[in-house]
Amino acid sequence: MSDAVLDIPSRNRTRRSRSFWRKPWLLSAVLLVVFIGINILIQPRFFSAYALGNIITTMLPWMLIAVGQTYVIFGGSIDLSLGAIVSLVNVVVVVLITALGGGPGAMVLGMVAGLLLGTLCGALNGFLISAFRLQAIVTTFATSIIYGGAALVVLPQAGGSLPTEYFTVYSEGFFGLTLPIYLLVALILVAAFVATTRYQKHLLATGGNRQAAFQTGLPVRRIVMGAHAIAGFMSAVAALCILGVAGAGDPLMGQAFTLGSVSAVVLGGTALAGGWGSVTGSIIGAAILALINNIIFFSGIDYIYQAIVQGGIILAALAAGVFASRRQK
Amino acid sequence: MSDVTGNHREGAFQRAFAFAAGTPAIATLFGCVVLLVAGQSIAPGFASLGQIAGQLNVAAILALVAAGQGIVILSGREGIDLSVGATMTLAALLAGNTMNGQDGGIAPALLAALAAGGFVGLLNGLGITVLRIPPLVMTLGMAGVITGLLIVVTQGQSSGSTAPSWAAFVTRPFLFGLPGVLFLWLLIIVLIEAGLRYTRFGINLYAVGSNDFAARLAGISVGWTRILAYVACGAFAGLAGAVLLGYTGNIFLGSGEQYILPGVIAVVLGGTSLAGGKGNYVGTAAGAFFLTLLTSFLTILSVAPAQRQIIFGVILIGFMLLYGREKATR
Amino acid sequence: MAAVLEASDVAKRYGAVVALERGELRLERGEVHVILGSNGCGKSTLCKIIAGAVPADGGSVVLEGRSVAFRTPLEAQAAGIATVYQETGLVPTLSVVDNIFLGQEPGKAGGRIDRKARYARFEMLIGRLGKLAAHLDPDTLVGDLSIDQQQIVEIIKALSREPKIIIFDESTSSLDRAQVADFFALVRALKHQGTSMIFISHRMEEIFAIGDTVTIMRNGRFIDRRPVSETSRDELVNLMVGSALQQMIEARQSHRQPGKPVLSVARLSGGKAQGISLELREGEILGLGGLHGQGQSDTLLALYGGITRRGGEIVIAGKQLGGSTPAAALKQGLVYVSGDRGRAGALRGRPIIENLIVGILSKSSKPIAERGKLRAQVRPVIDQLKLKFGRLSDAIETLSGGNQQKVVVGRGLATGPTVLLLDDPTKGIDVRAKQDLFALIDELCAGGMAVILYSSEDMELIDHADRVLVFNTGHVVAEISREDLSEFALNEASLKTAPAHAEQQPAHV
């Protein structure tokens, strides 16, 4: 914004400083620096291209799903079926590509179908919630049962395999950088663009005060449904990314992502009540979750301690995050 | 002035009908009858008394978990406890190791299960009210911590075992050919319903769930009411864990997980508002019975687990479409 | 002159409840049209139908010669009708500019918002509001603004739509006197530009200050339409209440002799209230006056423990007030009743009886609730308040606003308080309910109960208070005794500024 537009300088100054301290992602950014620091301590070669590439590949699906979840939560809703959508898309794509013969055409068709399916699943959630005014938590839990069941019907056990081209392209990428790095950059650019749009503003308005948004004339139902569709799409993209690493289908693969995505969103400073937060924060939140896993892996902590350390750290971070955001208000 | 003024009086029949159609608990019980009739016509014996007793027996565990969940949901502010599964496992393992197959250990084991559950609930309640962590997040984190602890302690192995008398109380005929746990359930239904209506805590719980600022101004300690709700929820999960131990004999990590979300669904089917302040336990109990019957019904249809799962989800959505709608945005 | 908007025979039913039976409105170009009526008369429903917030069941609305039936607020806005709601019209988590331009942001390619253009338009808009919006920062979150500032944002938001018709739904209720004057200047300017305005207000003075025409409604029906210049207060009140009800409450002319002191407060701070000291005697009604939001509510809330107390000593009936929670205050004989039922009073979805007994239940701290006994305990209060209800087991929201407020008052009175704190208790309730309420309060005061009454209506203070402490910016700036109490005195005192030293002498009796 330019100062010429606003003629009162003092007013302008207080505004800038205040809005800086109220950035939702501030605390998570500090945490990110801390966890990167710990990572460097226990893994000196953390910044090597190889190690960095590896960790970005692990982080990416988490980030994609967390960003999708963020939009849903912005709108005052929540989607607990994103993990199930990941599973369903995952197996459908594998089965479809195999059925179509596994050529390049089959791969493109399979991927497009997967993206479409994910978007539709998300849109269905949004439709049920906004058209029939159902509680988001329970509704998406119910659809997660359905999507998860469908995944098991399509592929009862982990298996199937993709053509090798699929994961070589994914892991080798172009110009010396892996595909996940390009995708991460694309994700950040798209999220930054969306942040300047009317849609995000309207979504936040809907989550902040649905009644007010409705009275103002915003199509609140379509807005919420759109956010769910976006989340479904993002989950589908994540499923494709996971396939790029795993190379085979797994109907139970998505389970961990649902709650992980909610944790990442809350870690990123976004209010679970809706209407306030930032996508940047969620991306950082997802990165923190991945770094915590990395720390546990490299510090040689026994596998059996992983769950407890992870749970404890997340809980502490959340408590700190909630506490800090309360102080700011 | 009298309680009933003329213009509010309607026909008793009309009122009863409106009550049934507008009361999810009644609709859920009606759904149970439909399932029993349909099951009986497909597999004769499905609706026999022995079968029904067996179904009730299974439903009792779910109903105990749902009892606590219902109390927490009533307390409002997006109250929900997703740590009940982990708490159940914790309590069941504790009880199993305390009993260790000896009848003499039953009383201390039950106490330990209740105390452990209550303690977890206390931590949840403190985190949610004092630190103001959102309930969903707090209880999920708690579930992670408990599960982690259990993995460390048990090294992933099953340990402990039920006392024979406890197993008999839970599974074998005890009185009138019914297992003892059903009488325990009945007692709990009466206690909760009476507690909600005739104790200060019950009335305060509804008040807090309905409007917590107004409740505070009316002299209610909102924080303690909520904390107590989570303690009760944890204790019920602990009790459910002990019953689960009696039912299955020994406990594995993750034994309790399968009860978390069906517990929430039972509460919803029973007509408790997820917004808080509205609902009762009779409905929740009916919801638990309905879910149990539905599972068996799909089993006798020889529907494979994956398909069964899909049907389960569709029916849940159907019920929510009927009763779960929130107030319209005007 | 042709009417801009003409509504006739408009009806609306919610289930079995008839909210509007025969709504009628004829709005001319460039006029301020007041709709007057007690609660439940259907005026809000009529406005909502015109604004497209609820669909009508019958009747017709003709806008500039064209028959319209808006299904959404958006359609009404597109047709040039904007509404300034009293509440829930803003998004607390968004900034002031975000809210004002919500849904009509100046755009750039790709659905982006043109921020510069938006700030420029904001500056233009607040230029039109003059002093009223002088200190409004466009980037503050609306949730951080005070209620009056939020109302101003609502007004700007409506103006930004350049509407032909604006509906003001009690827009002045949260503004103080100076702001109301600025607001009326704005209304006059809009009038000159040909904008028509529908104005709902419970303040009689405002109707005469700004209205051109007044439509009176009662029980969902249109009763009459009068030019404001050709009517009087008494006539309007008579049309509103219908029967030959005495229009004004018979004030307690006899000056009762207050008893011994029951409450003394020294240097109490909390919220906006700064170092408040006061003393209260048995049977006395102490009024708190002044412009809206000068720390009167916060004084009462801090006294009761509803908000955090920052220092101060409170002695009630000779004993130091222990504890800082409402529960502790209640046990020592204090009761607080807010006029903001939705937020601070009604337990929605709960039966009337539970709404009534929670107070005594908290005070007794017995773990078992003997419902029969409790019911008997609240019965006298129900009768005294002339509560109109179906069954005691019906949910509180089945009652009218006035009766809901009676329940909230009854909850407090059932505990048998020594001191009753009333925080603008008659906000948005009808004349009859007000009368019932004050009749009972006067009666209880005669029996020795002491009352501190904050009211945003001067007449209420004049009619009922034994003396009035006038607030300005968190301080008591004047004390007016009963003999000197008049609208003039209250107005004059409310504009006084606080003394340089924050400490107040205890107001003498």
Automatic annotation (TrEMBL), chain A:
Keyword Transmembrane helix attributed? yes
Residues spanning the membrane: 25-42, 48-68, 80-100, 106-129, 136-154, 174-195, 223-246, 252-272, 279-297, 303-324
Native organism taxonomy = Bacteria, Pseudomonadati, Pseudomonadota, Alphaproteobacteria, Hyphomicrobiales
Q: What is this protein called?
A: ABC transporter permease
Cell compartments where the protein resides = Cell membrane
This protein's membrane topology, according to the annotation, is: Multi-pass membrane protein
What keywords are annotated for this sequence in UniProt?
Answer: Cell inner membrane, Cell membrane, Membrane, Transmembrane, Transmembrane helix, Transport
Q: Using the record, list the residue span of the signal peptide; answer none if the entry has no such feature.
A: none
Primary residence: membrane
Automatic annotation (TrEMBL), chain B:
Q: Enumerate the transmembrane spans.
A: 16-38, 58-75, 82-99, 105-124, 136-154, 174-196, 227-247, 259-276, 281-300, 306-324
Keyword presence, Cell membrane: yes
Q: Which UniProt keywords apply?
A: Cell membrane, Membrane, Transmembrane, Transmembrane helix
| Membrane topology of this protein | Multi-pass membrane protein
InterPro entries attached to this UniProt entry: ABC_transp_permease
Instruction: Give its localization.
Output: Cell membrane
Query: What name does the UniProt record give this protein?
Result: ABC transporter permease
Species source reads: Mesorhizobium liriopis
Question: Pfam families, alphabetically?
Answer: BPD_transp_2 (PF02653)
This protein's major location comes to membrane
UniProtKB/TrEMBL annotation, chain C:
User: Can you name one GO molecular function term for this protein?
Assistant: ATP binding
Q: Does the keyword Heme apply?
A: no
The cross-references to Pfam families, in alphabetical order and at most eight, read: ABC_tran
PROSITE patterns per record? ABC_TRANSPORTER_1, ABC_TRANSPORTER_2
CDD domains in the cross-refs: ABC_Carb_Monos_I, ABC_Carb_Monos_II
The ABC transporter domain sits at 5-244, 249-498
The scientific name of the source species is Mesorhizobium liriopis
Q: Which domain of life is it from?
A: Bacteria
Question: What protein name does the entry list?
Answer: Sugar ABC transporter ATP-binding protein
**To which protein family does this belong?**
Belongs to the ABC transporter superfamily.
Q: Which SUPFAM superfamilies does the protein's record reference? A: P-loop containing nucleoside triphosphate hydrolases
Taxonomy of origin reads: Bacteria, Pseudomonadati, Pseudomonadota, Alphaproteobacteria, Hyphomicrobiales
What does the UniProt keyword field contain? ATP-binding, Nucleotide-binding, Repeat, Sugar transport, Transport
